[in-house]
Design brief:
single chain; 17 helices; NADAR; Cro/C1-type_HTH
């Protein structure tokens, strides 16, 4: 029976015993033994379980024949500066498919991505009128999607993101922009923002705010201080978190370097917090996602790494991990004008935009102070009257 022969061959290839197949498939060891000896009827249901145990499609067992090369394939292959141990024909097949894709298809895809990106970049730059940006802010609060192929999106995710030579370290967790908030110097806007979550006039909240005040790392402030005390967060926090964020970011604009960073962005820049790879509960509130752009960048990053390693193997350059990382970041950052940002309200981007326009126009953003006063927000023992 061909199915039994195929099962035996795949077991030999994987060096799998009958007992191991029994454990993996959920079929009794005695039944496995009888099946392989032709003493037990092999139903379709049992064949499905055996295929699952062997981690192969059932069609592989039902084929008329398996070529001899599938049995006992072992060895080593050097690819992408790695020595890969081959344990099975299936692994070899997958590696060959990967190599075929990365050497013949990926270069064409990356070329198309870069061509489209440059085409869209030129269209956007040529359509921009530096004096007609005020209409943006009037409708900006209502916009839920931003087409990166048609509008000038300035999206940030990490402190190392750049566009047109400008480092987009605009996120709350980015350091380097200390600012004064009601007589207290905060190292990051993340710490100041989190103080709003713990802003009742209690000793517990005052203790947490003190921790946040002296925490220099925004990530630690969120993951350590906040998460340790999350059961103490104000019950009404969601009702004023966006307005408190605006208040904190505007205070951060007292820092001249941060204010100049915002003003260095084009007046009609659509500022976006890119939350594509972030899956926390608030990621769609503060940012929005562009899956098409993320996928395009991954291809560019992979192609860049492969081309770099090709030069290393050819003796043209010596491998330098820091140099490679910087090159990958640079090539990835060039891809900006692909896909659409959606699936999010982008409140962080909108707040930064409101602050940017206020700075450019020498005004102040419209902060709802009545709402903030009504919430009786305390900062290190002081009731903020705004």
């Amino acid at each position: 029976m061909k199915e039994i022969d195929n099962i035996r061959r795949y077991m030999d290839e994987a060096h799998m015993s009958q007992r191991e197949l029994s454990q993996r498939s959920g079929i009794a060891h005695e039944t496995i033994s009888k099946i392989l000896n032709g003493k037990y009827p092999l139903s379709h249901k049992l064949l499905v379980k055996i295929a699952d145990g062997l981690n192969i499609p059932i069609s592989e067992l039902m084929e008329d024949a398996i070529t001899p090369i599938t049995v006992g394939v072992q060895g080593y292959i050097e690819y992408d500066n790695e020595i890969i141990k081959i344990k099975s024909f299936r692994q070899l097949q997958k590696l060959v498919q990967q190599i075929e894709y990365e050497t013949s298809i990926l270069p064409k895809e990356v070329k198309e991505i870069k061509t489209l990106n440059e085409k869209n970049r030129k269209l956007i730059k040529n359509s921009i009128n530096k004096d007609d940006y005020e209409f943006n802010i009037n409708d900006f609060e209502l916009i839920q999607t931003h087409d990166a192929t048609k509008v000038d999106c300035w999206a940030f995710k990490t402190a190392s993101d750049t566009k047109d030579g400008i480092i987009l370290d605009l996120g709350n967790q980015c350091s380097g922009y200390p600012f004064n908030l009601h007589g207290h110097m905060f190292y990051t806007s993340e710490s100041a923002y989190l103080c709003g979550q713990f802003s009742h006039n209690t000793e517990e909240h005052k203790r947490i705010q003190n921790q946040l005040l002296y925490e220099k790392n925004g990530y630690t402030a969120k993951k350590k201080v906040k998460n340790t005390n999350k059961e103490l967060i104000r019950a009404d926090w969601d009702s004023f978190r966006a307005e408190w964020m605006l208040y904190v970011i505007w205070a951060k604009c007292q820092n001249t370097d941060f204010a100049n960073k915002l003003k260095s962005l084009p007046p009609n820049a659509v500022i976006i917090e890119n939350s594509t790879t972030i899956h926390e509960g608030t990621s769609s509130f503060w940012g929005c996602k562009n899956i098409e752009l993320e996928e395009a960048r991954k291809k560019v990053e992979r192609y860049t790494a492969l081309e770099y390693m090709k030069k290393v193997r050819n003796g043209e350059i010596k491998k330098n991990s820091l140099e490679l990382d910087a090159l990958i970041q640079s090539e990835s950052d060039k891809i900006q004008y692909i896909g659409t940002y959606s699936d999010g309200r982008n409140y962080m981007g909108k707040i930064l935009k409101r602050c940017q326009l206020a700075l450019l126009n020498n005004t102040e953003p419209n902060i709802n102070y009545d709402l903030l006063r009504s919430k009786r927000i305390f900062l290190l023992g002081e009731l903020l009257t705004f």
